[in-house]
């Protein structure tokens, strides 16, 4: 009978800094979103929002940079929450979404600048982590 890992959660859930999501919801301009990221640099949703806005403005390189910050900070955060390479980071848990949006956006931005291997890797990783993510 195979042994199951005892220390790894089936699902990993992270949190955003106190007040950061409310501040982000109140942001009405790109400068407001930048201010949220500056005030709450650990807010993954702020980095995802900055990346999504950059993509919408046609700035794939800027988007790539914003998404990469959210992705790497998010990886640190899920590892700190117990993730060790397997298990889900469910989309259904709202505070996971900043990380998952950053990962999805990183893949999109990577594809836009010709980093096809990274785009594929991000897509595959996102499917592994959050099979519940809406398409």
CA radius of gyration? 15 Å
Order of helices and strands: HHHHHH
State the shape. Answer: globular
Total count of strands: 0
Q: Helical segment tally? A: 6
What does the oligomeric state look like here?
A: single chain
Largest sheet: none
Sequence stretches where pLDDT stays below 50 over 5 or more residues? none
How helical, in percent, are the residues? 55-70%
Mean pLDDT: 94
Portion of residues in beta strands equals: under 5%
Gap between N and C termini: 36 Å
The assigned structural class equals: mainly alpha
Provide the descriptors you would attach to this structure in a database record.
6 helices; globular; 135 residues; mainly alpha
Walk me through what this model shows.
The chain is built from six helices and no strands. The protein has a domain at 41-129. By secondary structure, the chain is mainly α. The model has no long low-confidence stretch (mean pLDDT 94).
Quick summary:
The protein has 135 residues and is an all-alpha fold. The chain is 60% helix and 0% strand. The mean pLDDT is 94.
Write the layout of secondary structure elements.
Blueprint (H helix, E strand, L loop, with lengths): L19 H7 L3 H10 L4 H13 L3 H21 L16 H16 L3 H14 L6
Helix pairs in contact: 1-2, 2-3, 3-4, 3-5, 4-5, 5-6
